[in-house]
């Protein structure tokens, strides 16, 4: 059994307290998101710093710079990232229009290739012994 507070994220509490002053709360929120981005990049073993769109380490760095200095460096990056996906022909038209309008690929339901491969592997999982889809017929209820 987990103790209360063992896996708690107290940064949300701090962010709510700092939202008394919206500019400070906004900066803290962006720093918090940058830290989360960097943490998940480390977990996925994708924490190498490269200057390319979609690199989580670059995103975290740009978010940190924007939060600390107020220099708009992450916003143009996000716009370029959205435009790259909006101009790609591998998505449906409605998704491309929304991404051109500023929605992120995640928010319009685009999955990454890695997630799709993982789901395909999961689908071919466990099957009980002696089970074949065409053979099983459910019994009717009798009274």
Brief descriptors of the model:
143 residues, mainly alpha, 2 domains, 53% helix
Explain the overall architecture:
This protein is mostly helical and 143 residues long. It folds into two domains: 11-71, no CATH class; 74-122, no CATH class. Helix content is 53%, strand content 0%. The protein contains six helices and no strands. The protein has helices at 11-18, 22-43, 56-69, 74-86, 93-100, 113-123. α1 (11-18) runs antiparallel to α2. The longest helix is centred in the N-terminal third of the chain and has 22 residues, at 22-43. The chain is extended, with a radius of gyration of 22 Å. The termini are far apart. The model has no long low-confidence stretch (mean pLDDT 78).
Number of helices: 6
Overall residue-averaged pLDDT value: 78
Q: Span between N and C termini?
A: 46 Å
For the sheet with most strands, the description reads: none
Beta-strand proportion: under 5%
Q: Unreliable runs, pLDDT <50, ≥5 residues?
A: none
Structural class: mainly alpha
Domain count: the total is 2
Helix proportion range: 40-55%
Query: H/E element string?
Result: HHHHHH
Radius of gyration: 22 Å
Indicate the overall shape: extended
How many β-strands, per DSSP?
0
Secondary structure: elements and pairs:
Elements: H1 11-18, H2 22-43, H3 56-69, H4 74-86, H5 93-100, H6 113-123
Helix pairs in contact: 1-2, 2-3, 4-5
